Amino acid sequence: MSEAVPNTARSRYADVPRNADWTISQNWASYSKEEHNRWDLLFARQMKLLPTRACDAFLEAQARLELSRSGIPDFVDLSRRLSALTGWNVVAVAGLIPDDAFFEHLANRRFPAAAFIRPEAELDYLEEPDVFHDVFGHVPLLADPAYARFLEAYGSGGRRALRRGQLHNLARLYWYTVEFGLMRIKKGLRIFGAGIMSSPAETLFSLENSSPNRVLFDLERVMRTKYIISDFQQIYFVIESFEQLLHDCDRDFGPLYDRLRDAPDIEAHELIPEDRILARGDLSYFLAKGEAPRAA
């Protein structure tokens, strides 16, 4: 994976020694007061929105992991608490790392989290994940046993997808669940994807805007569907539970990959006859922009 042009906070880690697995020292003591305050601002802003919009497992884990403490978490302390629950650890990286290294970490219950925090000028949108996205958005759900097993299995499966040249199919599963997934509970839809969880604008858009389609999760459908990188999603897939997600993905992906080789991709805005539609979007947000966002 290519790395974005470094900002001042990011560049502090650009030349630090890297281990063979791309991990670095977080060097928690090096964070400035301003950087800790920036974390607190981002945290407070999101927690005004999430209590009635995030899934229960996320909110419960935040409390158990003590993420409400002031300042950027120390990965050593955070890993101690997380490991006691599910055996996962958080390891520091300078930024995006190669796919094979990323999968190796996940397969061994290590979550690679960027050490740098976004600059003040990029509070609302950052091209490359930072420590707030990675720790606030991703880490709490690693305390859920079923979700933790799913992400471990995803890491193991990533190496096979690389060998087959079908990483783009598997990446779509990650995108539409780990990053931008929704869950249906008795009270309605809730967020579990980290890309939504760490964004105030997409928190509201994903649940309350009339534009996107919201469709029940189907593994093969998800792995055929392109996605939007630089804007809100045109479709969100909805699971019933982490246990259901783990069950649906607990299979030999070989025959699935074989079918996907011959199956056409589905555009991000498209619905297909087999979809179990919860909300048919009007795409008004995207149409108002006068051009269709490009899908990957």
Topology summary:
Blueprint: H1 8-11, H2 33-47, H3 56-64, H4 75-86, E1 89-93, H5 99-107, E2 110-114, H6 131-138, H7 145-164, H8 167-179, E3 182-185, E4 188-191, H9 194-197, H10 200-208, E5 213-216, H11 219-224, E6 235-239, H12 242-249, H13 253-262, E7 277-279, H14 284-288
Helix pairs in contact: 5-7, 7-8, 7-12
Task: Give structural notes.
This protein has 296 residues and is an alpha/beta fold. The chain folds into two domains: 7-143, Phenylalanine Hydroxylase, CATH 1.10.800; 166-296, Aromatic amino acid hydroxylase (Phenylalanine Hydroxylase). The chain has 14 helices and seven strands. The chain has helices at 8-11, 33-47, 56-64, 75-86, 99-107, 131-138, 145-164, 167-179, 194-197, 200-208, 219-224, 242-249, 253-262, 284-288, and strands at residues 89-93, 110-114, 182-185, 188-191, 213-216, 235-239, 277-279. The strands form two sheets. A five-stranded mixed β-sheet has the order 4-3-6-5-7. Strands 1-2 form a two-stranded parallel sheet. Strand 3 (182-185) and strand 4 form a beta hairpin. Helix 5 (99-107) packs antiparallel against helix 7. The protein starts with 7 loop residues before the first helix and ends in an 8-residue tail after the last helix. The model is unreliable at 1-6 (pLDDT under 50).
Shape: globular
Q: For the terminal residues, how far apart are their CA atoms?
A: 15 Å
> What is the share of helical residues?
40-55%
What's the number of extended β-strand segments? 7
Q: What is the CATH topology descriptor of the largest domain?
A: Phenylalanine Hydroxylase
Strand content: 5-15%
Adjacency order of strands in the biggest sheet = 4-3-6-5-7
Radius of gyration: 19 Å
Task: Give the low-confidence spans.
Answer: 1-6
